[in-house]
Amino acid sequence: MFDKKLNIFDQIDAYTKYEDDALLLLKADKSELIDAYWKTEADELLALKLNISDQIDEYNKTEADALLDNKLNISDQIDTYNKTEVGALIDYKLIIFDQIDAYTKIYDDALLLLKADKTELIDTYNKTEADAFRDDKFNITDQIDAYSKTEADALLDDKLNISDQIDAYNKIEDDALLLLMADRTKLADYVNLSTTQAIIGTKQFNIIAIASASKMEQK
Question: Which pTM was predicted?
Answer without folding.
Answer: 0.20
